[in-house]
TrEMBL record:
SUPFAM superfamilies: Zn-dependent exopeptidases. One of its GO terms (molecular function) is manganese ion binding. Belongs to the peptidase M17 family. The lineage of its organism: Bacteria, Pseudomonadati, Pseudomonadota, Gammaproteobacteria, Lysobacterales. This is Cytosol aminopeptidase. The keyword Transmembrane helix does not apply. One of its GO terms (cellular component) is cytoplasm. It holds the Pfam family Peptidase_M17_N_1. Residues 303-310 form the Cytosol aminopeptidase domain. The keyword Hydrolase applies.
Length: 455
C-alpha cells in the first residue's frame, strides 16, 4: 500500500498505540503509572468506542489510547487515522490474528479520501504494519467501490465502466466482450437498449470472462446506470442530486470480480455489467411503452424511473444461460429498501436457502451486515399489466423493494441458485471510517461467502 493508504513499513519507528475496550479499560488503567493515570482521569477517558486520548511525554506526545468497540469490527478502529495527529503509530496492544486484520482493514478504510478533484487538508496517521495479501486485496476492492461511485457521471459513464472492466481483465488475464449501441438489438438485449438509447453515450452490456473451463461457474451481474434522471418520469432535484451513484451495483460486482481474480478463487468467473445512462431526449422510452426482453417476456413501462430492473432483466437472462453454480446480482435498485432498512443495511433476497444462509453467516463473521428480505410472491399482483406479461412498477407504494426483487426473479430460472443485493452504496454523512460518498456494503461478506463455498 502507498503512504496515502495509511500504512508505514514494518520497522518504522512509531509512537505506541494502545487499543482498549471499555469492558477492559479499568484493568488497563490500573497498570499505568500514577502520573499517567491522573492524566487519563483528568480527561474522563473511559475507553468508549470511537474515542482517542493522547498521552503526554517529556518531549510532547508519548503515545495514544484508542477506545474500541467490537475488536473484530474494522470500523471499531477506523476513527484512528484522522483522530490521531499525522505521524507513525505502532500497535502496543496484543491483538489476536482476526482482531489485527480488523485493525489493519479499518485503518485502511479510515484513511480513505477521494482525491481525484480535491487535495485533502491533511494526511492520515500511519499505522506501522504490513497487512497480509488478502487483507490488502479486500481493502483495495472496498476502496475501488468508493472510487467508482464517487466519480461524477461526466467521468464515469458507460465508456468508463467498460474501461474499468478492461483494466481488471488485463491485470488478471481475463477476456472482455462488449455489445453496445444498436448491436444490443441485433444480439437480443432490447431492454438494455430501450433504457439507454436516449443518451449520447451508447448503452452496453459488458462481459468479463476468467478462470479455468472446468471450474465451477460463478456469475456476477451489476446494475450500471451511470446517471439516472428518472427518464420522462423525471426525478425532482433532490432525488437526482446523487444519482451518479446509481451504478453502485456495478461497482460492487466489478470490485468483487477483481477480488475473485486477485485471490485466484478456483471458479470460472463471468461478470456482466449492464451500463447505461437513463437520460431524457427524443429517444427516451415512455410510460406506457411495452418493452421486449431477452427472455421474450414483455414489460409495460409503468414508470421510467424503475429502469434498473429493466436493464437487469436482460443481463440476468443472459447470465442464467450459462447455468452457473451461483448467480449473484448487485443493484442500487429501490428507495423502498432504504425506507425499510435505512442506509446501512443492504437488502438480501435469495431463492436458494444455502446461499442465503452462507451469506448471512459471513456477514455476521465479517461485521459486514446484510438483512434478508422475503420473496413474498403474492406481491406480484402489484406488477400486473393489462397489455403485457409484466409491468415494471405499479400504482401501489407497498413493498417496493420486494416487488423489485420479484420482478428480477421472473428472469431467473427456478432451478438457478440466485441472490440479489439491493444496496445503497452511499454514506449520506461523514462518520469515522465512512466518509460521505460512495461505500462498499456487503462486499466483504460476499467475498467470505464465496471463499467458503468455492475456496
Amino acid at each position: 500500500m502507498t503512504d496515502s493508504n495509511g500504512f508505514a513499513p514494518r520497522g518504522t519507528q512509531g509512537l505506541p498505540l494502545y487499543c482498549v475496550e471499555r469492558t477492559g479499560f479499568d484493568a488497563w488503567r490500573q497498570l499505568q503509572l500514577p502520573e499517567l493515570g491522573s492524566w487519563i482521569d483528568a480527561h474522563s477517558f473511559s475507553g468508549m468506542s470511537g474515542s482517542v486520548l493522547l498521552l503526554p511525554g517529556k518531549d510532547g506526545i508519548a503515545g495514544a489510547v484508542l477506545g474500541i468497540g467490537d475488536p473484530l469490527d474494522p470500523f471499531s478502529y477506523a476513527h484512528a487515522p484522522f483522530a490521531l495527529p499525522p505521524g507513525d503509530w505502532a500497535l502496543a496492544s496484543d491483538l489476536d490474528g482476526d482482531a489485527l486484520r480488523a485493525l489493519q482493514l479499518g485503518w485502511g478504510l479510515g484513511s480513505y479520501k477521494f482525491t481525484r478533484y480535491k487535495t485533502p487538508l491533511r494526511a492520515p496517521a500511519r499505522l506501522v504494519a504490513e497487512p497480509d495479501a488478502e487483507t490488502l486485496d479486500v481493502l483495495a476492492a472496498s476502496l475501488r467501490v468508493r472510487d467508482l461511485v464517487n466519480t461524477p457521471a461526466e467521468d464515469m459513464g458507460p465508456d468508463q465502466l467498460e474501461q474499468a472492466c478492461c483494466e481488471l481483465a488485463e491485470a488478471s488475464g481475463g477476456r472482455i466482450e462488449v455489445i453496445s449501441g444498436d448491436d444490443l438489438l441485433k444480439h437480443n438485449f432490447p431492454a438494455i437498449h430501450a433504457v439507454g438509447r436516449a443518451s449520447h453515450r451508447a448503452p452496453r452490456l459488458i462481459a468479463l470472462h476468467w478462470g479455468q473451463e472446468d471450474a465451477p461457474k460463478l456469475t456476477l451481474v451489476g446494475k450500471g446506470v451511470c446517471f439516472d434522471t428518472g427518464g420522462l418520469d423525471i426525478k425532482p432535484a433532490d432525488g437526482m442530486r446523487n444519482m451518479k451513484k446509481d451504478m453502485g451495483g456495478a461497482a460492487h460486482a466489478i470490485a468483487l470480480a477483481g477480488l475473485v481474480m486477485a485471490r485466484k478463487l478456483p471458479v470460472r468467473l463471468t461478470l456482466y455489467v449492464a451500463a447505461v445512462e437513463n437520460a431524457i431526449g427524443p429517444m427516451s422510452y415512455r410510460p406506457g411503452d411495452v418493452v421486449h426482453t431477452r427472455l421474450g417476456v414483455t414489460v409495460e413501462i409503468d414508470n421510467t424511473d424503475a429502469e434498473g430492473r429493466v436493464v437487469l432483466c436482460d443481463a440476468l437472462a443472459r447470465a442464467a444461460e450459462d447455468k452457473p453454480a451461483l448467480l449473484m446480482d448487485f443493484a442500487t435498485l429501490t428507495g423502498a429498501a432504504r425506507i425499510a432498512l435505512g442506509p446501512d443495511l443492504p437488502a438480501l433476497y435469495a431463492n436458494d436457502e444455502s446461499a442465503a444462509a452462507d451469506w448471512i453467516e459471513a456477514a455476521s463473521a465479517q461485521r459486514d451486515p446484510v438483512w434478508r428480505m422475503p420473496m413474498w410472491r403474492p406481491y406480484l399482483r402489484y406488477l400486473v399489466s393489462n397489455v403485457a406479461d409484466l409491468a415494471n412498477s405499479g400504482p401501489s407504494r407497498m413493498a417496493g423493494s420486494i416487488t423489485a426483487a420479484l420482478y428480477l426473479e421472473r428472469f431467473v430460472p427456478a432451478t438457478q441458485a440466485w441472490t440479489h443485493l439491493d444496496v445503497y452504496a452511499w454514506n449520506d454523512t461523514d462518520r469515522p471510517g465512512k466518509p460521505a460518498g460512495g461505500e462498499a456494503q456487503g462486499l466483504r461478506a460476499a467475498w467470505a461467502m464465496l471463499k467458503h463455498r468455492f475456496g
